[in-house]
Model the fold of this input.
Amino acid sequence: MTYMKHLLFVLALLMAGIVTATAQMPSIPVDPDVRIGKLDNGLTYYIRHNNWPENRAEFYIAQKVGSIQEDDNQRGLAHFLEHMAFNGSKHFKGNELLRWCESIGVKFGTDLNAYTSIDQTVYNISNVPTTRETVVDSCLMILWDWADGLLLEQEEIEKERGVIHEEWRLRSSAQQRMLERDLPKLYPGSKYGYRMPIGLMEIIDNFERPFLQAYYEKWYRPDNQGIIVVGDVDVDKVEQKIKTMFSQIAKPGADAAKLERVEVPDNAEPIVVIDKDKEQRINFVQLLVKHDAVPDSLKGSLEYLVANYMKNVATGMLNSRFGEIVQQADCPFLEASVSDGTYLLSRTKDALGLGVVPKDGMMNEAVKAAYTELLRAAEFGFTATEYGRSKANTLSSLDKQYSNKDKRYNSQFVNQYVNHFLANEPIPSIDDYYQVMKQLVPAIPLDAINQVMKQLVPKNDSNFVLVSFNQEKEGATYPKEDELLAAIKEAKGGQLTAWVDNVKDEPLMTTLPKPGKIVKEVKTDKFVTETTDGTKNGYSELTLSNGVKVVLKHTDLKKDQVILSGEGWGGSALYGEKDFANIKMFDDVVEASGLGNFSHTELGKALAGKIAGATLQLGTYRAEISGSSTPTDVETMLQLVYLYMTGNVKKDQQSFDQLMKTTELQLKNRLLQPEAVFSDSLSLTMTDHNPRYKSLDVADLAKVDYDRILAMAKECTANAAAFTFTIIGNYNDATIRPLIEQYLGSLPVQKKIVKGKDVSSDYKGKVVNNFKHKAETPKAIAVLHWYSKKVPYTLENVIRAQAVGQVLQMVYLKEIREEASAAYTAAGQASVSRNDFGDEANILGYCPMKPEKADTAIFILRRAVQDMAAGKCDADMVTKVKEYMIKAHGDRLKTNGYWQGCINNWRKWNLDFHTDYEKTVQAITPERLCDFVKEVLKAGNEAEIVMLPAE
Ligand SMILES: [Zn+2]
Done:
């Protein structure tokens, strides 16, 4: 082990309490499987071959610049420029780039995207099918255009102003408004106070083209750019092409502008920001202690990796404590959490952050109590049992990650390379990383972690920042600066005692049930998949001695995953009006409860080192169990399932009370958000005002009955004979059968199967719900919906629906966003589904829009659907949609969830949605899509829900 010597050295330093990075530290080698190079003009590239999934690749260009580089008269233009990258470049005029990407099955928004932040702008073309080499060439051409060939045409600029203005409106929320307003105070004397990427709307609406051009030419230069290509590509060829194409970009002159490092000045006195907004739902406070960020030049060192790990361990253990503390009835806060990382939005400064959500009117007490925990951890450190659990969890997740190393997705690599390029974050090979961590984790003594915790908590008041955002309301009292600071002072003056870690030292199940038997096993060769070693598998259906059915399918699509799903008759349809509140809270209450002999908190501790989970949920007509685990922890997952299925959900009053208080807080001010007001109106209209489907409000909480929910949980799992379990993944074929016999074969069963009755509730005919709502930022949203119960659930109809949704989506983006500049986004959707009482087909158009252009947007939403019903459908769009659907289907085949769905559909409805999928997609014609829309519209059910701003 080559690292051992270095490790010992690092550990010696850690023990001495020296954890600031020093330049003498050994460095971690960069993964040799990534080709990194730099052209003469300064452009950096990363290329890696990866063939999971095969025939796919990612193309990225990262720019080391963002809104911080803007001049005062350019605020918002870094982001504006990012939008312009999709509106005309040297080789792709107008919107040709979008159209070309669509033609290869690469969808704007999903696979083709970009983001702008303070100090970086990153563009991506993802999930690109690479079977044709010309596609690779064209994607590199797009990156080239982005790097150096944007046209920034006047006409396109004019159209984009409206789109970005609507993006601003869409993102405008209470928190966003306050943050923007308060940034100058949070960054005194620094440009960071004035550089939110969305910028100023008066600049967006009015700037002249040269300002945008100036930013582009000044900052988009090869020395600030990194190209990243990962996937099923020939590395040598791609490298050669990058060299040929990108070397043509001129080398920046000696006078090129330098990327200035924008500093965040220290503050000797605390900075306190207390703000309020009428739409803020939850009052909270964030305490921050700024400290220097590790310089990029030192991030390649082994010590950086170790120091990061240790910091995460310390904050992770403190967060577990917070999770336990909030359950105490007298705890003055509902939530608290600690983290260490970037100070708000500046990469040049880090901070330790402590976020606290107080109980009503208890802001000062909450701050004092949460800060006290920070001090307690700093003074006494953590206990051996807490640290033991943390290590066990780290080691098992390392093993999990490592076991799946051959099936890592391209996106995982890309993100690491982007961070390496932009911030010099380390990119060791997974083998090196695994070996280092496997040695290191058990070797770091608890004392060293406790030292780190001590160092994180400041000794004095310097660099202290406190932010409190509150709901503005008549008669409300707001936190006061002197009181908040006094609360911290009191915490510092308090007498502390060490933390006591209560652990229940017993196995999840003390006595194991008497196993049943597998009485029958039928193998089928349907839904065949191939494992890495070439074995082909369909699936098996086991019948257990108690009548329970288990479907087993072995795959190694994800080497670290086994998933389980179980469905049994029952569900919320069995319960009437008295239980409406219980039904709505059922899933959350069960989740917050204990299991077997363990309370909720004890259960979390008992599962340390295991990667296994299970949940019980109440569907409308079925009770549903889902589980997942690593291949190693299948037994634990099955034990959890066993406990759920045998009525062992354990009452945990403390945890329940905490859940109810948090839910109350969530619900109380929910309707302050205009989006929530719309969504409630929408669901009321769609479900014909049926109280069964009305969203929960605070008054309903009084009707929630914990004992009744526990009784319902027992009831819906009482009869395992009503259940079928499906287990899919990389389980050990030799050991899983005895486990199934033990934990599923032993489940109690009854003869009688209880089924719920039809509780569906739909609006009928034409319904209009138009209303006005007053909001801080005027908002307008529209949904148009059509449905029919006469379109059968078949493979062809499901595919037609998917395609119709995508065609509508294309029309909406083109006409509403690109042409009318009436919205930032719009969506089209269609589906066909089945439940025990029948089939239903839906078509939906959705758009959060510019209030002044609401009529235009709504007109297009409806007209596009009516056009299709009248036989008008763009054949070129249909071809593109087919391309995308076949590609996306190819990707879905690589997931266990896909096969689970196929098997369920087959067993439940005798429908095979797999075998003919591609053939059916290929057979789609514009006419068939139009017919689908016509069939749905024929039913005459149409709803229009529109919210417009009130004065
Ligand atoms: Zn944007």
About this structure: The first strand starts at residue 35 and ends at 38. The longest helix spans residues 795-819. Residues 1-5, 16-23 have pLDDT under 50 and may be disordered.
